[in-house]
Amino acid sequence: MSLLPGAVAPDFDDPIALLVACHDKVRHFARLTVKLRDHLDGRAPDGDAVAAAQRILRYFDQAAPLHHADEEADLFPALRQLGDAQLDAQMAALHAEHEQLSALWHAVRPWLHAIATGVACAAPGEVADFASRYARHAQTEEQVVFPAAARLAPSALASLGRNMAARRGATTHEAGGSAT
């Protein structure tokens, strides 16, 4: 089970590209969750399974909440300033999806935690839904919300990048690879 391609993420000076890079990782770890379920079908966790579960937990416990905060606390409010009612409605739907994705994560997390500690247990039925919903959610944001960011003032994008960096204890000139 491979982790990620060797690509380096954009830095905080390009916050939208960094959010897209985060989505690439979201998709990767969501797919890895399904692969892990399939790998373990009827088997006890081996070293690869334990390591994969640990990586998935680390991503969705640490990086994913920061990513959601980037959108909820900074990007969405900045975009609401555009006064685009259709965009506002789409962001409201995405906000609701963030809450649904969180609930799915909390349904899948105990299983991953067991696997990460080497304990065999049955995968919850939500694994496939968790993976597919995260992928669809990321695609919707990339098609609907992120293009609208091109209408934001450069100062708003710079503020987004600074706030993303601050959430992670970094500066805006550090590489974004550790940000997601």
From TrEMBL:
<dbReference type="InterPro" id="IPR012312">
    <property type="entry name" value="Hemerythrin-like"/>
</dbReference>
<feature type="domain" description="Hemerythrin-like">
    <location>
        <begin position="15"/>
        <end position="149"/>
    </location>
</feature>
<dbReference type="Pfam" id="PF01814">
    <property type="entry name" value="Hemerythrin"/>
</dbReference>
<protein>
    <submittedName>
        <fullName>Hemerythrin domain-containing protein</fullName>
    </submittedName>
</protein>
